[in-house]
Amino acid sequence: MNGITIIDKIKMEMGKVARRLCLGLLFGGMSCVGNEAGAVIKLPSLVGDRMVLQRGTDLKIWGWADPGEKVTVRFRGAHYYTEADGQGRWHVLLPPQQPGGPFLMEVNEKVIRDVLVGDVFLCGGQSNQENPIERLVEKFPEIPVSNNHMIRHFKVPYQDDVRGVKENLAGSGVWHSATASEVMNWTSLAYFFATEVYNRYKVPVGMLVSSKGGTDIESWISQEYLKDFPKLRVDREALEAAAEAKRDKGTGKWNRRDFDDSAWDSVDVPGTWRETGIRVKGSVWYRKNFRLPSSMVGRHAKLYMGRMSDCDSVFVNGTFVGTTAYFGPPRKYDVPAGVLVEGVNNVTLKLTALNGNGEIVRDKVYKLKGDDDEVELSGVWKYKVGFDRAEAEPYEQRLANLRHAGSGLYNGMIYPVRNWKVKAAIWYQGENNAGRAGEYAPLLTSLIADWRETWGWPEMPFLLVQLPNYMAKQDKPSDSGWARLREAQFQVSRNVPHTALAVTYDAGEWNDIHPLDKKTVARRLFLGARKIVYGEKVAASGPIYKGLETKGNRIILSFDDAGRGLSCRGGRLKHFAIAGEDRKFVWADAVIKGGKVVVSSPEVEHPVAVRYAWSNNPEEANLCNKDGLLASPFRTDNW
């Protein structure tokens, strides 16, 4: 065996595999050993240990594999067969499941443990939706000793891309239970809501939280549903044209040793782009063929490429030998043994200068040096433009709104979870849009319709959180962006079927935009869920303004949804304001009489309008029904 043992051969083969793997990672993660190691099934991060599946509906389990790969899913004593399509995608449909668990799911060789079947709620919005539960442990000491393994939480990792939808989530999110060792991974509103659901119905609960602080509602709506908001839409034609203009035509092709560059133009190297008439803001590829002295064939060599502006990538006979990302350093690259061959050899240079000042600097060394011989590389080269950013500039002008366009979070954090069946959605957002409250109602209406279409469920229930009280109280009645946004939320809850609104202007904090009392918010949301999600006959709303009648210096207000009758928290009604034709509001006296509210003020002899709880912080507003549910803020004017 010429002194080579079996162990030596094994080590040599292992070394070859390792080198191939490293090269694969260098050039974009291509698989070098996939067929030898066997095909591997890939699952979305949602399909993992401790997941909760929605009861009572068909369930889609999906993933990726090699095209044609056969896939078997086993769950609760049944098995389901499929195979990956030509793009490597596969899915199976499980029939409706009864609640329970924990169960085991197997997908080929993968095992998913501790699976529950129950009710899943999709939670969307901004920072108050994702308020970390660790902030609440002092206010609610039951949190650190939580011991409920039947409620679970999955926080969708951030992913924002206005350019198009994503098929998979970013990062590596995982499901967490609400045991003491895991509950600190939860968001606070999700925890209290899940607790309410479980305590009443005793079925497992999953909270799928897709939220991000400081975000506008339009970020969560698809481009198709922003058609009435041109400033929020992306010019798809310009986007595709700009991407094509920026695509380097030479990538993966022009660096090959045997590439035919006979049709390329010639240029003297070294030199500047401007001197040779190259007017490009992008990349230019250079190629030079040469013959080697026999002493250099198959040997290690050093490649000296002077200095360049700005970024270079260099290949010898198609083998990548080095790159430098900026102007200063000298370019000196190793050419590994075995790369140089007898006959014609090639050096390919990709030079990138996004500012257009491309340069191969004069009076520097440009040669290939071996131990005994060298090859001069300065002189005539072939060249061709890879891409010119200037060609994209007309399209980029049409894309000036990309930074402010909508849909980025829908694309990255809603669309990828569309296959996960849910019981209802919970939407808590609006702070970022308070300065543009006039457009919020149509945007929220679009969001609801959009998500319902995405999930293929026209009657998907939506539970909405109205903005709480915030900022300092004001001595006199005044207009308010927060009040107008609460009004928009209320209007949507009245006009869009299968929605419910949690009124929370007593659960905020004047000096904290992230109030801690998420338990009160969760309880009010759950009242809405009991009614529109679970079909209970329960009072879920406070009094709702219906109409007015003017009698002398008084305005008499009537209400719907008064339940067992109107009431008030405390001794007398507060936070009513009244105005005459001059539109100047003053604080008013208000009393409940005969199921109506009578409002007046000695300062307004001929009143025409009333506002209730109309401010940033109407914490003292106290009109409610006898079930203790607060009236939503309202106004009778349209000023």
TrEMBL record:
Signal sequence segment: none
Domain of life: Bacteria
Residue runs in coiled coils: none
GO process annotations (BP): carbohydrate metabolic process
Keywords annotated in UniProt: Glycosidase, Hydrolase
Claim: RNA-binding is one of the keywords in the record: no
Gene3D superfamilies: Galactose-binding domain-like, SGNH hydrolase
Domain Beta-galactosidase jelly roll residue range list: 277-353
Gene Ontology molecular function terms on file: hydrolase activity, hydrolyzing O-glycosyl compounds; sialate O-acetylesterase activity
Residues annotated as domain Sialate O-acetylesterase: 406-507
Pfam entry (one): BetaGal_ABD2
Xref: SUPFAM superfamilies: Galactose-binding domain-like (SSF49785), SGNH hydrolase (SSF52266)
Protein name: Glycosyl hydrolase family 2, sugar binding domain protein
The species this protein was found in: Paraprevotella xylaniphila YIT 11841
